[in-house]
Request: fold
Amino acid sequence: MSSSWLLSTWIKSSKLKEKNLVILSACLSNVNPELYRRITEGKEVLQVCPEREGVHYRGKLALIIKSCKPKLIEIVTLDGSPHCYLIHASINTVEYILGYKLNKKHYVVINGEEVREISSEAVRLARYLHIIDELLRKDPELTNRLENLSLEMLEQKKYKEE
Reply:
């Protein structure tokens, strides 16, 4: 296994050709080093941070996938991060631009500990806030699930109690 920054990787790198590729949040190795090791073991790793790199990595990602044709692409990010979400959205966009279905899996790391697979449809749906709003109106209890995840929710709760 080797790890590189996505933007610093040559698009025709032989180490990526027809390999299992993990594209992940660069901060994951700091959040949970053991989990990072388990997720990346035996795979080629491209780290990305949309907050640091802006959206420049999208085109590079498309070129790497087109040139190297990975067997499997796993996207692993920290759940709840608006920046990390962009990595998931980007791979769906790359798939659309390339015009063919990628063998890909989306994962989020919840609270730095639990890895959970999510669907491409969930990633796509997250872009459409009016649909999310409809779901919340139908089931307001969904918001309560944020209480232990969202720092914003914890702060709001604290202010209400004061």
